Amino acid sequence: MCSPQEPSMMAVGVRMATRSRSCARGAGSRGGGEEAVPLRRGEAAAEGRQSHCPVKRQRKAQRLCVAYEAADGDGEEGKGAEPLQAPGWEPQDWRRQLANIRTMRSRKDAPVDQLGAEHCYDPSAPPKVRRYQVLVSLMLSSQTKDQVTAGAMQRLRARGLTVDSVLQMDDSTLGALIHPVGFWRSKVKYIKQTSAILQQCYGGDIPSSVAELVALPGVGPKMAHLAMAVAWGTVSGIAVDTHVHRIANRLRWTRKQTKAPEQTRAALEEWLPRELWGEINTLLVGFGQQTCLPLHPRCQTCLNQALCPAAQGL
Ligand code: SF4
């Protein structure tokens, strides 16, 4: 039976995810995340012990656990997962490349730095409303520029963005508020469906595990990992979007070329030190917005030009 419970509030902090409640591993922090994380770390632990829909959730956590755990070599063989990297493999020059990207990103003036999911919720709202707003902003952000997502969130917040308010809103009104985000018609449907599940099974809050988040309509792995980081203060994995996917391949941060963001996530998690997982998304997204553009990357001004295997061919 669904049974909402207001979590206790503790000191803000960022921790590495336990991935799922049944497969806990990892330690570290999400670099640069503390300031942006509004939601209390203790809430994740408190909420993680709740079971709003116990049978269904337990089954999904077990099923998805294999896919997320297999990549980091914890001994659980993933069915269909690729073999683990040889121990010690890492991309040539990655530390220097990363340092250069940090230097290029030091001004933190990319769109993601001002308009990312960390900046789209109402900081004065109750914690679970803030977490819901984080999730909605992530759902809107798919295939959408940060500026457009931020505009839609502003309009939604002006109407009071809560699970209840969205469920009471008719589809055409919700569509008009989020337009022109990418695939806005589908997102109306997904936001409504997800909101109904949150109300029925999570007391109006969002779930606190990747497995449960990706089970929500319209929520993919990248959104789930970002939601864990921003809403729960937990680094559960590397959030890979098109920027991270593209740049990781250009810099040869994957041992072989990858075709999809999820492949890139698994490839990066094989070698990138865990303490860097929380930093890498915002760092590379901003780098991709300003310098390593999808088309016509600005290699002439890039500090990695001499170190980048892709620079010659672009
Ligand atoms: S040299 Fe060009 S392709 Fe390589 S990381 Fe820099 S901008 Fe991207």
From TrEMBL:
<keyword id="KW-0539">Nucleus</keyword>
<dbReference type="InterPro" id="IPR000445">
    <property type="entry name" value="HhH_motif"/>
</dbReference>
<dbReference type="InterPro" id="IPR003265">
    <property type="entry name" value="HhH-GPD_domain"/>
</dbReference>
<dbReference type="GO" id="GO:0005634">
    <property type="term" value="C:nucleus"/>
</dbReference>
<dbReference type="GO" id="GO:0046872">
    <property type="term" value="F:metal ion binding"/>
</dbReference>
<keyword id="KW-0456">Lyase</keyword>
<keyword id="KW-0408">Iron</keyword>
<keyword id="KW-0479">Metal-binding</keyword>
<feature type="domain" description="HhH-GPD">
    <location>
        <begin position="140"/>
        <end position="290"/>
    </location>
</feature>
<keyword id="KW-0234">DNA repair</keyword>
<keyword id="KW-0809">Transit peptide</keyword>
<keyword id="KW-0411">Iron-sulfur</keyword>
<feature type="compositionally biased region" description="Basic and acidic residues">
    <location>
        <begin position="37"/>
        <end position="50"/>
    </location>
</feature>
<comment type="function">
    <text>Bifunctional DNA N-glycosylase with associated apurinic/apyrimidinic (AP) lyase function that catalyzes the first step in base excision repair (BER), the primary repair pathway for the repair of oxidative DNA damage. The DNA N-glycosylase activity releases the damaged DNA base from DNA by cleaving the N-glycosidic bond, leaving an AP site. The AP lyase activity cleaves the phosphodiester bond 3' to the AP site by a beta-elimination. Primarily recognizes and repairs oxidative base damage of pyrimidines.</text>
</comment>
<keyword id="KW-0326">Glycosidase</keyword>
<dbReference type="GO" id="GO:0000703">
    <property type="term" value="F:oxidized pyrimidine nucleobase lesion DNA N-glycosylase activity"/>
</dbReference>
<dbReference type="GO" id="GO:0140078">
    <property type="term" value="F:class I DNA-(apurinic or apyrimidinic site) endonuclease activity"/>
</dbReference>
<feature type="region of interest" description="Disordered">
    <location>
        <begin position="20"/>
        <end position="55"/>
    </location>
</feature>
<keyword id="KW-0227">DNA damage</keyword>
<dbReference type="GO" id="GO:0005739">
    <property type="term" value="C:mitochondrion"/>
</dbReference>
<dbReference type="Pfam" id="PF00730">
    <property type="entry name" value="HhH-GPD"/>
</dbReference>
<keyword id="KW-0004">4Fe-4S</keyword>
<keyword id="KW-0378">Hydrolase</keyword>
<dbReference type="GO" id="GO:0051539">
    <property type="term" value="F:4 iron, 4 sulfur cluster binding"/>
</dbReference>
<dbReference type="InterPro" id="IPR004036">
    <property type="entry name" value="Endonuclease-III-like_CS2"/>
</dbReference>
<comment type="subunit">
    <text>Interacts with YBX1. Interacts with ERCC5/XPG; the interaction stimulates NTHL1 activity and NTHL1 binding to its DNA substrate.</text>
</comment>
<dbReference type="InterPro" id="IPR030841">
    <property type="entry name" value="NTH1"/>
</dbReference>
<dbReference type="GO" id="GO:0006289">
    <property type="term" value="P:nucleotide-excision repair"/>
</dbReference>
<comment type="similarity">
    <text>Belongs to the Nth/MutY family.</text>
</comment>
<dbReference type="Pfam" id="PF00633">
    <property type="entry name" value="HHH"/>
</dbReference>
<protein>
    <recommendedName>
        <fullName>Endonuclease III-like protein 1</fullName>
        <ecNumber>3.2.2.-</ecNumber>
        <ecNumber>4.2.99.18</ecNumber>
    </recommendedName>
</protein>
<dbReference type="InterPro" id="IPR023170">
    <property type="entry name" value="HhH_base_excis_C"/>
</dbReference>
<dbReference type="InterPro" id="IPR011257">
    <property type="entry name" value="DNA_glycosylase"/>
</dbReference>
<dbReference type="GO" id="GO:0006285">
    <property type="term" value="P:base-excision repair, AP site formation"/>
</dbReference>
<keyword id="KW-0496">Mitochondrion</keyword>
<dbReference type="GO" id="GO:0003677">
    <property type="term" value="F:DNA binding"/>
</dbReference>
